[in-house]
Design a protein that fits this description.
The complex is a heterodimer of chains A (488) and B (308). Chain A contains 14 helices and 25 strands. With 488 residues, chain A is α+β, with helices and mostly antiparallel strands. With 308 residues, chain B is mostly helical. Classes of the chains: A alpha+beta (488), B mainly alpha (308). Chains A and B meet through helix 9, strand 10 and strand 12 of A and helix 1, helix 3, helix 4 and helix 14 of B.
Amino acid sequence: MATEKAIDTHTGLFSRYALDHCYDEMFDASSAPRPPYEALYRRLLELSPSDLSQRQQNADSAFLHQGVTFTVYGDEQGTERIFPYDLLPRIITAREWETIERGLIQRVTALNLFLKDIYQEERILKEGIVPRHLVYSAQHYRREMLGVRPRKDIYVSVAGSDLVRLPDGRFAVLEDNLRVPSGVSYMLTNRQIIKRVFPELFTNYAVRPIDHYGQSLLATLRSLAPTDRADPTIVLLTPGVFNSAYFEHTFLARQMGIELVEGRDLIVHDNIVYMRTTAGLRRVDVIYRRVDDDFIDPLAFRPDSRLGVPGLFNAYRAGNVSILNAIGTGVADDKAMYAYVPAIIRFYLDQDPILPNVETYLLSNPADRAYVLENLDKLVVKAVGESGGYGMLIGPHSTVSQRDAFRQRIQAEPRNYIAQPTLALSRAPNFINNRIDSRHVDLRPYVLCGESFTVVPGGLTRVALRKGSLVVNSSQGGGSKDTWVLAD
Amino acid sequence: MLSRVADSAYWMSRYLERAEHTARLGDVCLGLTLDRSSDTVRRLRGAVGAPPVGYGVAPLALGESITEDRLNQTIIACVAAARENARQVREQISTEMWEQLNRIYLSVRQTNSPGSSSFYTSVKEAAHLFQGLTDSTMIHTEGWHYIQIGRSIERAGATATTLEVLFGDAAAQDGAGGIGAYISWTALLRSCSAFEAYCQRYTADVRPERVAEFLLLSADFPRSVRFAVETVEASLRSVARSLGRSSSGRVERFAGRWRASLDYSQIDEIIAESLQSYLQGIRRQCEQVHSALYQTYINYELESAIAS
């Protein structure tokens, strides 16, 4: 590891701020603030720690009172928790954003073509670009979707890919979330809160607005309604109040002005979906579902699901209702499939990927497996079907017994795991313990794909709050901060 | 409006009303204990409503007497159930209402003195504040009316139950006359927040038939059964109007018939006939209106709904 050096030219708030081989979002290698951060830096030097902690308290109490909370699974005690919020914005320049936006649109376009292909023609499998067994053995591949045609052949209409910034300053894709990506309510709430607690800073920057996300999402959903429905009824399907993202579901339903429904509110009769209202049954045309495939219809998928709607899949297959994202999109965000995304982009679009992938070892591949098992202490191992930071081994921070456990699991089921080099995620300044210190961050922008693409300029910057930690997931002690994309 | 949302709004309101009623009972019992009227306390606690299922309070065993602990657990469970229902309709109620209910919940869960007068007072005040916020921050459409209906049905039932458990007690003591009976009657009035209102109407001359008349048939006192039933009927009419129907059908007929009978009832006739069975009749009618409401708007038969 490169030696750490404190920014000795800085005093006070920044006295412990360290730079090393990781990319620092705020300071360049000579420890001078990068141009977009200059105004923020100057403003921070004018503020005392007590000023900042006063603002932090204001922000925290705003979250508390609004009840912006999430649920931690497996935690018997307080089931609802506040999502930790950091005061200092993360800034992305117009040029950087331009690349991110083009890269994401390219990626989602290719992934939609890939999903259409594997559920309709299987061209990419016949040509041997993606191994057939990898598709068929993917946990979220849905054989039931073969031959089903979603409206306009759009499978993924809401995507949330996780980006990281590498030491050379480039953004790379760490993983794709193509099923039910969450976190957008925090993106929107973070913006509201920073406007309240840091108004003077906000006015010094030309920050592109993100408030139209709800409206854009609604337009996207409407554009994918079944053809013959003039004024479609759109609903958001939630698993219910015990789901970790329930706050987000109520938030989005309110933003869009649509009904928030649970499975038990819906019934299917003659392949038509209705919701039970006090005025009688009302036909439903578009379902923005935040329920996983497995639970959406007990007749088609898991029979023990009580969150779903019996018969929904048949109504969908009959074209009487649109479900977004489509069923079976998880095959494309499988962590093993991820390694093939650059090839998928080349195959369908005949273009080079604009946003690179992170180097990935497939453990079903014997040569990769041998290398990974030799080097478990240097690599990050992930279970392919998991998300939310569960089922991960971070080699450099692991114990011998953890590595042994993973070695056994990998040997038992190699298809279930991938490995990646331990990334030097970029770091951004955070206000922690009355001082400004740096923590690793990633970025999850949200891509909407309907009639056209909308990438709301911003995203959720997640922060690994524990010093040195690389895990940013909210379920694993991560926090978030507002993300400013500059207009320039 | 989704039927489930109507259901949650209705129960949110019922459970909060139950918590408030129970807190009032608890507070009155506290005063009675100081007056050494333990028999009245025992009976009065019998008017505690059923705790919601699944909030850590076991159903009452046959013949089991209600302890102060149980009463406090019931308050906490009712507040938790009200909040849980509110969470399910969070996008429908106002932010102020949600935040207030959240605050009540956090405070009853964290309290280290359940059973103190300040505990009961805080629950009562918090419920009143919630009601005020409901009236002044929520749009008065369908959802608001289900909240009114839930509160009023709960109130009518609770008033009838309280009358029933204490009337026997007070009547028995009446023979002995004197101070014991007076304390029981005023306890009854206080447990319905009716003592001062009663005095304004009838002076402090507390007589059984007047107490019963006031709590059952007063047109102007907000906790009387008649007042509650009038509210239910009016809200049912408003719900029908907001849905573009001419009436709420069967449930409105039940409520209307009941309201009319209360309008024209005479307390001396009720007592001559049997107050006990009249009070049981009120509980039956609460149940009837409740299930007719569910059949009309919430749990209706799908077959008939598909046909229409």
